[in-house]
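== Polypeptide entry ==
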Amino acid sequence: GPSTSSLAQKLVGKPPTGTVRLSVALNLVVPALGHTVAFSIREATHAGRRGRKLFVVPWRRRSMIGTAHYPFSEEPAHFTPRETEVERFLSEVNAAWPGRPLTRADVLLVHAGLVPDVAGSGEEPAFLERHQVIDHAVDRTPSLISAVSGKFTTGRLAAEEVVDLVFRKLGRRSPPCSTAQKALPGAPDIPIAELTALAARRVNGELTPAVIDHLVRTYGARHERVLAYRQAMSDWNQPVPDSETDIRAQFA
């Protein structure tokens, strides 16, 4: 995670190989803005530099807007998003999309995290195009390996490379890796439409089509674990407050 470099520095005793700066990444979730497809808006050009694209994405009957990137130079373990950063991003969104002004009261959720920024402080962010697996033997700490990435989506490939490196360091041959073929937990082996139809037949009218679609798209093949509560809960299919598609069985 973002503390990789600072932790490695404590173990190595100096700034380690592969040290990267970090930037704050923010997405804002607001009430639905009346769109059913994702689209982009562009920030205003300033200081002769063309503004970056922001994306507006429909998400769970709401809208998600992102992503803002701001410099970060503190200890990653102590990171919390600042209110000033949220306000700054709101003003940038409103400047880029003046027809739909948003206020702080519209913000329902803030997605915030730290990501590697190879451009460095004070510049436009530039992110890792590929994860890095760092052998700290070059720092005279041969038993230490770091993995740095800006995405979860490449996590399994990074893990494969780390394990292979560990085996090489141990002088052993690594076993065959199945990560490229193994499905993620809950990944269905049939199209979503077929899985939704099967779930609808299984509940036989006890859930609305919208709830069934929500469960299948949220849990994939594991939606059956939610439906199994039909046998143990009398109110399993009752909606939770302020939701049209979340039901009590999801929180059992």
